[in-house]
Amino acid sequence: MAALDSQPELKATVLVVEDDEAIRKGVCDRLIAEGLEAIPAADGHAALAAVTRLAPDLVVLDLGLPSLSGFEVLRRLQATGGPPVILLSGLGSESDRVLGLEMGADDYVTKPFSSRELAVRARNLLRRTMFRENPAEVGDHYNCSIDGVQLDVDFPRRCVMLDGGEIALTPREFDLLACFVRHPRQVLSKPQLLELVWEAQEGWVGEATVTEHVRRLRLKLQTERSKANCIDTLWGVGYRFEPDPS
Length: 246
Ligand code: CA
Hints:
Layout: H1 2-5, E1 13-17, H2 21-33, E2 37-41, H3 44-54, E3 58-62, H4 70-79, E4 85-89, H5 94-102, E5 107-110, H6 115-132, E6 141-146, E7 149-154, E8 159-162, E9 165-167, H7 171-182, E10 187-188, H8 190-198, H9 207-220, E11 231-234, E12 238-241
Parallel strand pairs: 1-2, 1-3, 3-4, 4-5
Antiparallel strand pairs: 6-7, 7-8, 8-9, 10-12, 11-12
Helix pairs in contact: 2-6, 3-4, 7-8, 7-9
Bound molecules: calcium ion.
Calcium ion (CA) is lined by residues 18-20, 62, 64-65.
């Protein structure tokens, strides 16, 4: 508990979406014991209403929900740039984990899990989110050009404009781009990116996750005007973000 108690200033609201009453109550009780505010929701519709009404800082989302599935709730949250999400699943299959990640979830816990471990992960994710929202090191805005096309990153709003139009990035894709623009022309290895962007020791986040996110980010950074690739692959070494010379 020492790691949790060391940052008592972290005040945050966590929405717990789980139809199993015993699990829902166990998770809420643990989060409250950790000094967080916990809001229970027993189904997806209640969850979406609570997100709109209460703007929680984090959502713990069970995938196995009645009527509206956890995946559908996740899809709707991501479509509106919602809060970070930790998924719960009793299935534990790799395809669910990958799909959840691809849809923008930040973390994943397989049942059965300890509510204490979940609380630690929630705390860590909240700290990372709050850290990311502090743009002190880079200023609020970054801009460069890529093959003559203007790229603007607005850190406080987590918004990216390319050639004057906003592009839709998942939270993790935004964090990956933010990492690249903070290290322009610098080679970053996959283990470095896992450390800097995912900050995760979880066994299921591997280098293939980095490869896939880089692939999708590259595609999103292309326009009708330019199909140039601004993230170079250095085989066996890593990746390098190469904006045009300023
Ligand atoms: Ca369930």
